[in-house]
Structure formats: C-alpha cells, structure tokens
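ARCHIVE CARD
Drawer: 12
Card no.: 0347
Subject: one protein chain, sequence and derived structure
Cross-reference: see card 0346
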Amino acid sequence: MRKGNLMFLQNLLVLMLLCAGAFGQSSVHNGKEHPRLYAGKAEREEILQKIKSQEWANESWEKLLGEIAPYVERHQSDPEWITSRLAMYWEEGERYTQCYIKGQDWDYGEGNAPVPTVRLPGMRKWNDFQNVPLKDRIPYNESGDMLGVSRSSGDKTPVLVPYKESGHMIRNNNKEILQLAEKSAFAYYLTKEEKYAKFSADILWTWLLGTYYMKPPLDPEESTGGLGGYAPGGIMGYYDYEVIHDDRQVPAATTYDFVHDYMLANPHEHLSQLDMNVTDLAGDVFKRFIEIGLVRGGAKGNWNVNRYRHVLISMLVLEEDEYYNDGKGMEHYIPYYTEISTAFHAPLPKILENYNKETGLWPESPGYASGMIGALLEMALPLYQAGINTLGENPMIQKAAMANLGWLDARGNLVVFGDMRGGPLNYEVFERLLTYYTWEGITDEAKKVATVINKGIASDQYDRSEVDWRRIILNQPINTTENTLPYHRAAYSPFHRHMIMRNGNDDENGMMFTLYGGMHGSHLSSNGLAWQFYGNGYALAPDGAAYESYWTPDMGYYSGPVASNTIVQGYSKGEITVNAMDPMVPSGQFYNESVTSEFCSFADVSADEKRRLIAMIRTSPTSGYYLDIFRSDLAENDYIHHNLGNRMTLSDTGDTPITLENSSIENPPHEAYSFFENTRKARYADDFKATWTIDSVAPALNVDMWMMGQEGRELFVMDAPPTTLRPDVTPGQVNKAPQKTPTLLVRQKGNNASESPFVAVFETYKKGENSLKAVSTIQSTDRFVALEVGSDNTRQLIHNAIDKEVYETPAGSVFQGIFGVVSLKNDELTYLYLGKGGQIGYGGYHLAAIEGEVSASLTIENGIVAYSADKPVMIKLPGGDKKEFSAGKNIRIHPSK
C-alpha cells in the first residue's frame, strides 16, 4: 500500500541527458523524475493491473482510447490539423506579445513574436454560445471570430460570433484541445507508444511557445481592479480576465508531466534560438501563472481557493529550487499554499477557518460550497504524492465533505438556492476521500464514502466508467454494495438562513421541503422568504436557475424574489427568526437529534413583515402532502408559485375551469415581471385548485394545489422563464431552456395578508395515484386557521395560530399553540400532534404542556397509546384522569406496562 512518506517523489534522481542537435551542449537535470503528479514510473504496472481487474477502469480506459484515436491517427499524417485549431494570434505581424484590457475586455495588442502567440479570450463575460464541434472549427483562425451554437435557444444553427463578443469560447476551445493532449499523454504513459507522445507534445509545444512570448495583459484604466502585468491586485490572471479561470495551465502541466522526458529527448527546433530545453521553457511559463496567481483575486472566499487549484499543479511540476537561477522551484512555492499568508492570498489553515466548526459548511451557496471542498480534495492527492498529507493534518476537510450530504435531495442532487444551478453532488469529493482512506487503511471511513459513491451510481447520477484518466489512477475498488445514504429529518444552517426537512429519503416516496430567507452576498440571493418542495426525488416547486450569466439581464430575474416561491413585495433579504421547528436542530449543530412525530414536520419562520409556516404531513408510507400558511403585513401582496409542468390548469373546488382573460399585470412590484409571457387573469375570491402536469415522463407526474379563498384576489397564470439549463435536475428535462415554466401568481389587494393569509395545500403524485380527496376550511380568523384535509380513509384537522389563545373548533378539536394536527382513520383518532404549543385535544384525548410550550405527539395504534415529548406533558385519555409524564420518546402509557 502506498504511503505519503514513501512516495516516489522523495527519491532524488540525477538525469544526465544529451539532447542531440538541440543545443550543441549537454543538459544536466538535477531534480525529481517525471511523471510525478498523480503517479510515477513505479505505479505504471499497478494501474495496468487495475484496468485488467476493474470493469469500470477498463471501460474508462477503452473510452479514453476511443476518444483520442481519431485525432492521434490523423496526426500521424496531418500534424497541423489539431494545432491549427488552437486559438492563436496566427497572422504574421499580429503575433502579439502584449495585450491591453479596457472595460474588462480585450482592447488591442502590440508586438510581433517569432511564433504565433496564444490568443487571449475576447471578453470577461459569458455569452449564450458554445463552440461547434472541433471538426467544424476554423483552422488558423486569424480573426478570433468563433463559430458557435446557442445554449438556450432551440435553434442550433451555427453563427459566427465576433472575437470581442465570444465570451469563454476562446478559453474553452484551447482548454478542450489541451485536454486531448492530456489524455493522449496519459495513454503514452501506459502504452509507451510514441504516437501518443507526439500528438501531445506537438500541441503542448505550440501552446508553451505561444504563451512564453506573451507578456501578462496590461489594464491601464484598472477595470479589473489592478494595472495587470506582474503588479499585484485586481482579479485578472495571466491568460484570463479572472484568475480563477486561468485553468489552461492545468492540462498543460499534467501533459508536460507525462511527456516531459519525450519532449526533452525530442526538442522543438525553436528552442535552439532560446538556448533552453523544455524544462526551462515550461518552468518559465508555469512560474508566470504562479507568480500572477498568488497576487490576484484576493485572500477571501472561493476566489482564493479556486486560484490555488490551478497554480498548485503548476507548482508541483516544477523542479527543485536549486535548478532555477532565481531559486524558486517546487519547494519554494508549495508553502504558499500550506502555510504562508500574504495580503493577496490565504493558505490552507486560513481557508479552513472559513468553515463553520459546528456544521462543517462553507459560507456560500451549496454549489460553491461543494466546489470548495472538491478543490481542497483535488489538491490533496497530488500533494499526498509529494509527501504532504493535508487531509490527515486537517480533519475539517473530511467533516466539510460529509456536510455536503445534508444539502442533498433523495436523488443526490444539491438543493438549489443562491447563485447555482444545482445538479448532482460532486462525487469526486468522495472518490478522493475513498482513495485517501484506502491508502491510509482507514476501513470504516472508506466504507462510509463508498456508500455515497454507490448511491450516485444506483441513481444514475454518477458513472465511474466516464472518461477520466485521474479516476483510473486514483479511484479504488469498492468493497461494499450498500447504497442507502443516512439522512436526517431536519437540517438548518443559520448563516445560510436555510432549513431542510425530510420524511423518508427514497426517490419514489421520500418527502422533502426547504424553507429559507434571503441574503445578499456569499453567492446567496435576495429571494425573500421562499420555499421548495419535492416529489419523486425532484424539486417539483423549484427556484429558477437558468440564468445565462451574472452579466445578462435574466440574472435580475433569477437572483431575486420573482424566480422564487414567495411573496414578492416587502422582505427580500435580512435576518430571519425561527419561531418554531420540529424536528428541532439544536443550536450549534447542523442536524436534529430527536424526532417527535413520524408523521408531522414543520417550520415557522418570520422575517420583517413576513411569517410563513411550512408543514409536511405523511398519510402513509407512499403518500402525504405539504401545507403553506403565509402571512404578510402589507395591504397588497403577490404570492408567486413556480411549478414544473408541461401544462397547468386552474379550476374551482368542483373542477370547473376558471375562465381566464388575456391581461397584463398592472403595477408590477418588481422589474423582473417583464420576463413573464402569455399572462392571463381572473378575479376570484373563492377557494380554488391548480394542477401542474408533467407528461414528458411516464407515468405522468402531477402537483395539485388547493388554496383557501380571500377577498381582493386576482389570479394570474403565465409563462415564466425556464427553470434550468441542466439536463439532469427535472423529470424528462421538463422546463429546461428554452421551455417556459407554468407559474401562478395570486395577488391580494386591500386585504392585509397578515390577518387574511395565503393558505395552501399541495400534493405530488404519479398519474392516478393521488390520495387527497377534499380540503376545506374549518375556521379562519385574523390570528387562527383550521383546515380539514381528507384522503382515502384518513383525515387531518390542521391548526395554526400566531397567538396564545385557546381555540375550540366546530370540528370538535381544542388547540393552543403554533401548529397542531388531529389525525383520524375511519373517524377513529390515530394521533394528536402539538408543535410548540400549550394543548391539543379531540374526542376525550388531550395532550398539554405543563409549563411553557411543548412539542409532543400522542399515538393510538391497536389499542396501544404512546407519547413523545421534548418537555414534561399532561395527558388525558377517554374516561381517565389527567396525568403528568416526563419528556421522552415513544413511551407506552396504555395499556400500562
């Protein structure tokens, strides 16, 4: 078994190489051998054996060979085909050596190098286009105009995108070609076939020399926050406007590592003019990326981390310090990640201080948080190969990786809130932990992370056999078939103002909702007091996240309350107060410790003038529903609900369609209303139903919504922008761009929604499997709401109050508290549930707090009565006296033990 302190990189070698005809002199290389980043010469046979014995590794290897084969074979007779598709300043006289930036975009270039230089991206911002396939790209493209197809439009006809409007197309073009070189270099490492080395080396020579002759861009007006060049400050990298996107160095460095010896023995003819060998040339280029990377992007947040994930690889392929005239080699630079702080960057110990010690969460949205721990683990393995164990020395990295599980839905997708598009968990995080635990022989932890990987495979979220040479090297055999993830009923992060509640965690029948407040900054959004709910493992009532980029107009829609399920007016960001939640997450923790009821979960949250209660009621192992009671102390409120669906219908409670007329939305409270299309309206004050149908899958999925009527209501049905750009976060890719999202807006005017709240019940189900039969209002006052929700052979009496009064309802229940449920089956009581309250009673059964407020349940099953309570309670059974009972979980009280 490999150990960090036994890595081959600790063995110092002296390579005496004569590069015939290159320099007319011998080149003495005193340093560590190549390759070294992920594996060395000693590991080659071990990797070949893995490919023979592990099906996933063999499939990945065969796919890799199949992917590069057409390019490598063509290269034998047409070596210019691939290099001509690199984005370069090709034209003689315009092979710029100095570029200038203005307004964070390319302005102009100066100078003329003896070889073509690598083209700088034309602009910082993204655009809507992606490159056409490599075979269709323009060879020796002198203008930099790129052929692209729209990402969001249904029209996939290629268009010519001007250089200065090309977004990330230049960057992605060159990265794609360098990654082909990287894969081919790995193939050379394993097969020793020279055709792979030549393909990789020819690409890398073109890129290295073209980069060597280019000085770092200058920004005289400091639009990127600094002057550019080598001056510290600002956000610009060496070959990108954002140092965190200076990523072409990574495939270049890994390619160099695998084919270093080949390139040393087969030098480019231009090196004789420079009096360099490839080690000198590459060292010069990679050190520029490092030097600039360490003084750009700032010392805080994800920029600090993402800058390291690129420059660290460049650091690790350098030779030892004494090889270079300036004394700056690998040993010099690595401490700038592991220990040395400056005004411009913060090393690993300070990075880890960003993580919440109790929750293990990074202080940004889930996508960024997952990316940050992924970056730390991505860097940990090559460092481990170099004898530096950042994982064993920093247990927070492991804790933070496991904390990501708290943000997963049943399918393994990250919840969407803030600046992120969702999608599967980064399973590389757990692969890298599995690698580390296997190397270190930590079998219990290895089994835990293997379970997560198995879950991703089982739910088709992760494929171990995808083409990835790093996985072939690093991934380890999995010695367990377990794929059931442990889950918690509740998770809450006060920093993110975000809570998750679950009941079950399987794709088919698990229930889950999220409730959260708004925040500006940390890649979170000013989205108001918003919620999402799930069915069949998908967020069926989602936050929208199909924005093109941070700079495009649609970001104004997706980053605010109009793309969320909330009330648009009033509160959009700021602190929230958790009035009650059950299961409760104790202070200083991420998860709940105990569960009061197997059937009921809820959270009641206030923010400024808003107060929202979301509850989840389980009616059977395969059915249940969600409750939303939303109060807003404003005279006019727009309650907006986005739901996945190919179509939507609106009807009264008797299923008669409500007539809608084409109409605009008068006096829109937010400028993002301009994104709504096909708007129709009805004035309607009674109870109503809405149904969304997803028939792009079979069986179809449905969401039914019942809403209690209020005076002053207008109902708007409209087409909102797409929900997602991703193909994997909605069933059947419904509402993926360019499809619109069917959305309901309920406007209430002249009727304060604190006293006349929005009250809705939602059920998700497969076609023909709905369980709810009727929803009706039992009682409604300005401080209290009671509903009856009936399903197949059960019904629940739901209670919610915002005061401490005792309410006796016409249905025969008594209630005092924030939330309470009386559940009946065939008209016989099955349970009482009290969520942070004083009392609840029905039919001779009574459950009450002894002092203050209590969360408690009383269940009756087959004549056995049991209770759970977080504080002492008073319980009365039919025909009996009141008795006091201490706090406890599932304690049987009748028949007495």
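Annotation on reverse: The chain has a mean pLDDT of 93. DSSP finds 18 helices and 39 strands in the chain.
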